[in-house]
Specification:
Glycerol-3-phosphate (1)-acyltransferase, globular, 7 strands, 230 residues, alpha/beta
Length: 230
């Protein structure tokens, strides 16, 4: 069964329309919360220029980092592979689905159909987002070892990988009076095009290169090939 139909709501045209309307309204609200009230900042937006379908990857360091990624790409609606317990049930699943989340399969024998469906999203010009470390490291400053999934998908679909990092900074200016915790800065790096026609080789090359680039971005205060505040 196609992944997009794992949740019954995806079968209905009204749900797809509702998802677009909900997303269009929800992300500006998240922008106000994450960026205006909490000091989040996005740089490197020019690296998205001309990018059609892509796999994006980011370190997972905060419960709101998905929201900041969505804000960075707005009005484009990203696809977020998500743990099934957050998607497969009525609540909060319907709201997660409206925001572009899809369920990662529980069974190993569903993995191939999962990647086939993600490839379909990419052929439709969508952007699929992964946290390749596979777990959250709250306020972490060091990049953890990557899992293969994002790079396997990008190699299969022959699409660029766009590395993203989130770093934390001491509040400055007005935010010194609003926050004690550090603020999130999201930096978008330069896209990494396919490196080989061989899927396995391309997967390995770009997995290593993406890790090295993201480590460099974090060590150099989030620099990612130029920046522009959003």
């Amino acid at each position: 069964m196609l992944l997009k139909f794992r949740n019954k709501y995806y079968r209905y045209r009204w749900f797809r329309l509702a998802s677009r309307v909900f997303y269009t309204a929800a992300i500006p609200v998240l922008f106000v919360w994450v960026c205006v009230f909490n000091g989040g900042r996005v740089t490197g937006a020019q690296n998205m220029k001309g990018l059609k379908s892509a796999v994006t990857i980011c370190n997972h360091v905060h419960t709101m980092d998905s929201a900041l990624v969505a804000v960075a790409f707005y009005p484009r609606k990203l696809v977020f592979p998500t743990m099934p317990e957050k998607v497969d049930y009525l609540f909060p699943g319907i709201f997660m689905s409206l925001l572009g989340c899809i369920s990662v399969p529980r069974a190993r024998n569903e993995t191939n159909s999962f990647f086939e469906e993600l490839e379909t999203f990419l052929t439709e010009g969508r952007v699929v987002h992964f946290f390749p470390e596979g777990f959250i490291s709250h306020y972490g400053s060091e990049l953890q070892e990557f899992k293969r999934g994002a790079f396997h998908l990008a190699a299969r679909a022959h699409v660029p990988i766009l590395p993203i990092t989130i770093s934390f900074h001491k509040p400055c200016g007005f935010y010194r009076f609003l926050r004690r915790k550090p603020v999130m800065y999201l930096t978008i790096g330069e896209p990494m095009r396919p490196a080989s026609e061989d899927t396995r080789e391309d997967e390995q090359i770009r997995m290593k290169s993406a890790y090295e680039q993201m480590v460099w971005m974090l060590q150099n205060d989030g620099q990612g090939g130029g920046s522009r505040a959003v």
